[in-house]
Amino acid sequence: MKKNLIEIRNLHKQYETEGVVTKVLHGLNFNIKEGEFVAIMGPSGSGKSTLMHILSFLDRPSEGQYLFKGQETSKFDDIKLADLRNSEIGFIFQQFNLLPRTSVFDNIKLPLTYTKKVSEKEKNKLVAKAIKAVSLDHRSDNLSNQLSGGEKQRVAIARALVNGPSIIFADEPTGNLDSKTGGQIMEILEDLSDSGKTIILVTHEKYTAEYSERIIFLRDGNIESDGKVEYRRRNGLIK
From CA 81, how far away is CA 72, in angstroms rounded? Predict the structure, then answer.
């Protein structure tokens, strides 16, 4: 039986600016198991980006518990959280965030730059493996600004994979792509999920969310619904 990777208990988030308090998340409760492919959906202002930032250790909750691999993260200092982001988390963004005049190989290698536990030879092997996983072997030496949008997002996926993270966060990964290319990117994420990776997708598009196994729908900082996906997009299967 798969273990809970993430446990969220009565999670709240608010921001205060010049004495004005803005409440964003209101007492959320849910678990995410190892190997799950979960989509967090909701309209603009629903709190989905704030939730992603908390889950990926970029922000802290104002109240409540966040357990990661059974450990209460509120006790972690900033150094520990930074270490977790580097070792446990892979990020895929809508804007790709690649270095434009840098090769595909070196863009993917970036997360390994400050890893001292791995030799240079082993780092190169990890990069080669990640490139192969997204079928970009033939583009390894190309500069990222020579690639199409879909190829750039494949590089971003490989970069997210290279350090062997526990979770991959995909923030609107198809937002800058046409529907055909976006579908290809979602199929890569689905393949990664099938291989055992935990994936958390943040999107406002139902079409994209239907590649996942489960959708958590936020509205006004509350969970409006949380359930399995009946119609999975790639194979058109009812599950």
Answer: 12
Q: Is 75's pLDDT higher than 90?
A: no
The reply to whether the predicted model has a pTM over 0.85 is yes
Choose which CATH entry (3.40.50.300, 3.40.50.150, 2.60.40.2470, 3.50.50.60) describes domain 35-49+85-238.
3.40.50.300
Q: Are 42 and 48 in contact, with CB atoms under 8 Å apart?
A: yes
DSSP characters over 204-228 = S-HHHHTTSSEEEEEETTEEEEEEE
Tokens of 3: 């273990």
- Domain boundaries of the chain, sorted by first residue: 35-49+85-238
Let me know: does 191 contact 160? Beta carbons within 8 Å.
Answer: no
Q: What is the dihedral of CA 207, 36, 158, 60, to 10 degrees?
A: 100
Q: Any bridge partners for residue 9, and if so which?
A: 65
Q: Given the structure tokens 């270490």, which residue do they identify?
A: 83
Query: Contact 230/238 with Cβ under 8 angstroms?
Result: yes
Can you read off the two tokens belonging to residue 155? 């590089």
pLDDT tens for each residue of 107-163: 999 988 877 778 899 999 999 999 999 999 999 999 999 999 999 999 999 999 998
Rounded to an integer, the average pLDDT of 172-184 is 90
